[in-house]
Specification:
Elements: H1 2-15, E1 30-43, E2 56-70, E3 75-95, E4 98-120, E5 123-144, E6 150-154, E7 164-174
Antiparallel strand pairs: 1-2, 2-3, 3-4, 4-5, 5-6, 5-7
Length: 182
Amino acid sequence: MKRFLATLAVALMSFCPNAFAVDDPPVDPFITGVHVGLGFGGYWDYPSEYLGSDEWMNVAFDLGCAFNIRVNQYLSVVPELGFGMIISSRDAGSVSYYDVSENRGAYGVKIPVAVRFTPHRQFYLETGARMSLNFASSHTLSGSDIDGNTISISRSGNWKPKSFVPSLIFGLGGTFRADDHH
């Protein structure tokens, strides 16, 4: 993993010939911004009390605010505060002539704090820690039979994610300023 991140950093610097140019405009020491995130993922072999596939597909969405505190021209500390949700879905198989799908949701507050390396003003690499504070969840089973009849069952008390989830973050990304006219 270290070798991959080092190679990625060198590649980004190579593709950004102006990364270390001295005529770059001065950088603000403190910047506030909006964080919008959309992600896709999955997990497998998750134990389930129902029939069907153990292959779950996820869609995640984050919305919040970000603060970029510059240490120097290339390094900054970036704390964020946001609301996040993850929706997971899988095919649960057939139960009593119904083809059933299972959906789970987790909703909470996300608080990541990252150290960001910015070789060019529009590209960055970052690493840090994140705390997820999940405060709500949902769990539904829905299905339809061959005649088109549908059924939906809410099982909200049956599945609850952990309320406190610490994790490590690694990433790369890009930024733009709405007031940048260069």
